[in-house]
Specification:
Elements (H helix, E strand, L loop, with lengths): L1 E5 L2 E3 L7 E2 L4 E2 L6 E3 L1 H17 L4 E7 L5 H10 L3 E5 L6 H15 L3 E5 L10 H9 L3 E11 L2 E8 L2 E8 L2 E5 L11 H7 L4 E4 L30 H10 L5
Parallel strand pairs: 1-6, 1-8, 6-7, 7-13, 8-12, 9-12
Antiparallel strand pairs: 2-5, 3-4, 9-10, 10-11
């Protein structure tokens, strides 16, 4: 069985967000890059757990990005991936990224494609669904539990007021969220082994992006806190009526 895990490079959650060139480009100065947590903690770790139960499983990783993504994908290899593929392209359009991934899937006949539910920078949550359509495979989103029995997957996902349990035959595309697996830290053996694991760089297919970023905008700065004396109930009531907002 072959599993493909999609991973993405995202800014560290503590990174200071700023934009340059008239708010048309993210300022990468001093930014620490990490594997998108949903891809790492849930999709990749669940694939590793499946391989631990069945050593015959092969785990491939894929990312769409330039050479600065290599340290990120090497970390994913250190966690437990067997091989990695980097599509050498720099584009933020979801359709373009999904089409590049789908092209690799079609060439390699993967049985299972796993992604995180979304990336923490763009929050688009659209790649997995597009990939499933392009490769003509079923898609189950927001999985909280994933079990494999031969060529059948049992997937649990949260719905309004409860849970939904689905069974689907492979191949299938699944986006993963909290509950599927628990975060792991690469050990020294994995880090050393990752240096020699195959990382194949392929040129992108000639695909036109459907969207482009016009500009970015930061949310408005938070207003200062107003303190009211415990004895001044009338002022507190006035503020609640006239100035307080429910967000």
């Amino acid at each position: 069985m072959k599993i493909l895990v999609c991973v993405s490079k995202t800014p560290d959650t503590t990174a200071k967000i700023a934009f340059i060139n008239g708010n048309t480009k993210f300022d990468e100065t001093g930014v620490q890059w990490i594997i998108n947590p949903y891809d790492e903690w849930y999709a990749l770790v669940r694939a590793i757990e499946l391989k631990e139960k069945d050593p015959s499983i092969i785990i491939h990783l894929i990312t769409v990005g330039l050479a600065d993504c290599d340290p990120i994908i090497r970390k994913a290899l250190a966690l437990g991936g067997d091989e990695a593929i980097r599509v050498n392209a720099d584009n933020s359009d979801s359709y373009y990224i999904a089409a590049q991934i789908a092209g690799v899937v079609k060439k390699n006949n993967y049985d299972l494609i796993l992604t995180g539910k979304e990336t923490i920078d763009y929050n688009g949550s659209s790649i997995a669904g597009m990939v499933s359509e392009m490769v003509d495979a079923p898609y189950v989103s927001l999985a909280t539990l994933f079990e494999l029995n031969g060529t059948t997957a049992t997937i649990t996902r949260e719905i309004e007021g409860g849970e939904e349990i689905a069974e689907v035959s492979l191949p299938v595309v699944v986006s993963c969220q909290k509950g599927v697996a628990e975060q792991r830290i690469p050990n020294m053996r994995g880090i050393m082994a990752a240096r020699t694991k195959p990382l194949q760089v392929v040129e992108p297919a000639p695909i036109d992006a459907l969207t482009s970023i016009v500009n970015y905008e930061l949310p408005p700065a938070k207003a200062g806190v107003k303190l009211v004396s415990p004895d001044n109930v009338a002022e507190l009531v006035r503020l609640l009526h006239e100035e307080a907002r429910v967000i």
